[in-house]
Write a structure and sequence with these properties.
By secondary structure, the chain is mainly alpha-helical. Helices cover 73% and strands 1% of the residues.
């Protein structure tokens, strides 16, 4: 009995807080790329792609011979000769493009693995992948710059698995599960602060490899949490009475009993759903979920927003260099400001969950069914997120350096909302037994569109002479398309409300 009380009380909050720490420190670290690029440039990664334009024009030396005799300063620019490093910037942008693509595209096999083998096995695989990625960065060197491609990709894939396996913790908090999910997604966005910390440590004299070796050592904490504070399979919703999880003071039979109760509860939820309740999607199979209009519009909605954000992050450093006229101190200042604002994501994201939970409770008290209340709450969240994305896109295309502080804030706010809305929509609309597969499939398919960020970067650098105005205008127009998703949910809710009204009228007339 004492063990059960611990599981329902202190254990639950310990699971939540350690999960928050995990998402904040590891899950989305790769999205702090703008800070890490500065360190990598100072270390000389891809520096062989920089050329001395003066000497090349004068003597006709090839790039390899010229780059070998140049002395690259910490800013990536020679003290006496101007360097052309556009190809270096392109390779850094390509690293982030491939990383963001791998992080999303491989979410489908990761989600399938999560649904198939459960939390413990999936997370142990993710920890091994993450550790391998950090070790590859730690032992890389400018001569092995190509290692950045697999290393950052591995860290991104593992980080997405960390987030995916932590979102089920929201089930432990009942009616506040949307708030918990959005807190975790906000922490996921704020974890990009990690690379800023690495940058500041580097400037204070801590070598890059030491920071990444420390990250590798932190995997011990992740293993401990996996074994002691998370379930073997998954946390059901609603949580059965006496449910427990992890390696605890109770014996393994108690753990398996809790899991069997969870499985029975899951089947009961699917089988006892009313056939007349057309608003609830709990009875759909995985294939039916994929063929639904909700899935298609949500995929389009997420893909467009991600493309806008990834292109902004991937081109942030070149944009700052252009607006500051290549003043490296200003670039570093704004890069630090961008990284610091990412921490605000963990503060902004809970508002999305609170809005959803409060609005859902208000609708349920007004007499709406749980499924319809979930849909309407999700619609409100999708609408707010779409509005923030338009504002962010408009500010991002205005070439005023001081305005970028406000752009950074809008980017963090929108990212906190869209990551929370994405996970919460899938979690509350579709069956929980398909969550990992659906979440991963949507992320994987949206990654295909995110690949357009690299051609857009090449278009800006090579054809538009570094001026992204026309690309930003096109993206802003494209962003307007995402309002179709909340409108489609609204129309569906209105159709259901009309059917219920007609049903009540028919009953009264009879």
């Amino acid at each position: 009995m004492a063990c059960e009380r611990s599981s329902s009380g202190v254990r639950r909050w310990l699971t939540f807080t350690t999960g928050l720490l995990e998402c904040l420190c590891f899950a989305g670290a790769v999205f702090g790329w703008a800070s890490l690029v500065i360190v990598l440039r100072r270390e000389g990664y891809f520096s062989s792609l920089c050329v001395n334009t003066t000497s090349v024009r004068a003597t006709g030396l090839n790039r390899t011979e010229d780059s070998e005799r140049l002395n690259f300063s910490s800013a990536g620019v020679n003290n006496t000769h101007p360097l052309e490093c556009s190809e270096q910037d392109e390779h850094f942008s390509l690293v982030f493009t491939i990383t963001s693509f791998a992080s999303n595209f491989l979410s489908f096999p990761s989600g399938f693995l999560f649904d198939w083998v459960g939390t413990t096995v999936a997370r142990l695989c993710a920890i091994c992948i993450f550790t391998l990625g950090t070790l590859m960065v730690a032992f890389s060197a400018p001569a092995l710059s190509v290692l950045l491609f697999p290393a950052l990709s591995l860290m991104g894939v593992a980080g997405r698995m960390y987030l995916m396996t932590n979102m089920q913790v929201g089930n432990l908090f009942g009616a506040r599960r949307s708030t918990v999910i959005t807190v975790y997604t906000g922490a996921f966005g704020s974890s990009s602060l990690l690379f800023l910390v690495i940058k500041l440590l580097y400037e204070a004299g801590v070598p890059l490899y030491s920071s990444f070796l420390f990250l590798s050592a932190c995997s011990a904490f992740l293993v401990f949490r996996t074994l002691f504070l998370l379930p073997l399979k998954r946390i059901p919703y609603p949580v059965p009475e006496h449910y427990t999880y992890g390696i605890i003071c109770c014996n393994s039979n108690t753990v398996m009993l809790g899991q069997n109760e969870a499985n029975n509860n899951s089947h009961m939820t699917l089988s006892e759903t009313s056939a007349d309740d057309n608003t609830c999607l709990n009875e759909l199979s995985f294939c039916q979920c994929v063929r639904s209009s909700f899935f298609f519009w949500h995929l389009l909605w997420l893909s467009v927003i991600q493309l806008r954000h990834y292109l902004f992050i991937g081109t942030l450093n070149p944009m700052l260099q252009r607006l500051s006229e290549h003043d490296q101190s200003v670039v570093s200042q704004y890069s630090n400001a961008f990284a610091v604002t990412q921490l605000c994501g963990v503060l902004c994201a809970p508002w999305n969950g609170l809005i959803m939970d409060r609005y859902r409770a208000k609708l349920k008290s007004a007499g709406l069914g749980e499924c319809e209340a979930d849909l309407r709450a999700a619609m409100l969240s999708l609408t707010l997120t779409s509005l923030f994305c338009v504002l962010f896109s408009v500010c991002a295309m205005i070439p005023v350096l001081q305005l970028q502080y406000f752009t950074f804030f809008l980017q963090v706010l929108n990212r906190a909302f869209y990551t929370g809305s994405d996970a919460a929509f899938i979690h509350v609309i579709f069956p929980s037994c398909h969550f990992g597969k659906l979440y991963g499939l949507i992320k994987g398919l949206s990654a295909l569109l995110s690949l357009l960020q690299y051609p857009c970067f090449i278009l800006v650098e090579d054809i538009l002479n570094g001026d992204p105005l026309y690309v930003n205008i096109g993206l802003t127009v494209l962003v307007l398309v995402i309002f179709i998703h909340p409108v489609s949910v609204y129309i569906y809710c209105q159709r259901i409300a009309l059917k219920q009204t007609l049903r009540k009228v028919n009953i009264v007339s009879c």
